[in-house]
Write a structure and sequence with these properties.
Blueprint: H1 2-20, H2 40-58, H3 64-80, H4 84-101, H5 106-133
Helix pairs in contact: 1-3, 2-3, 2-4, 3-5, 4-5
């Protein structure tokens, strides 16, 4: 899918900007393919990627390991680009998708509950790295 390809390229460009051009590009101006004026385009793009990945997961097109890899990549971009709002919306998306897509079976409730706990743990870990990277 073209969105996944753009996501991979965007992540690479953001990491190159962060690692090699940190004097010129930092925090909110780390937007990869989307210029350096504002971070709202990057947040919107990452939310679109997140919704596509969650939709594919809940329709069983991707496995849990693939979902976790996408979430790690999204969190890395969010941490490096200092996108605090994305970390909150990520957990909120999990909750909404789980509520909308679940039929009341014990197995699914446990599975989605575990994923929510993982997402919440990811939020905590991402927040700690965000504070370490950008203390102010």
């Amino acid at each position: 899918m073209i969105v996944r390809s753009l996501f991979a390229i965007n992540t690479i460009v953001i990491m190159v900007q962060f690692l090699f051009f940190s004097a010129k590009y930092s925090q909110d101006s780390l937007n990869g393919l989307f210029g350096r004026e504002t971070s709202s385009v990057n947040i919107t793009f990452l939310m679109i990627v997140l919704s596509i990945v969650l939709s594919e997961f809940f329709t069983k097109k991707i496995k849990t390991k693939q979902l976790l890899l996408y979430l790690v990549e999204i969190n890395i971009v969010a941490i490096v680009s200092e996108l605090k709002a994305l970390l909150f919306f990520e957990v909120l998306f999990f909750l909404v998708y789980a509520l909308v897509n679940s039929k009341a079976s014990v197995k699914k409730i446990i599975r989605y509950g575990m994923l929510f706990v993982i997402a919440f743990a990811g939020l905590i870990v991402s927040s700690k790295y965000l504070v370490r990277l950008y203390p102010s």
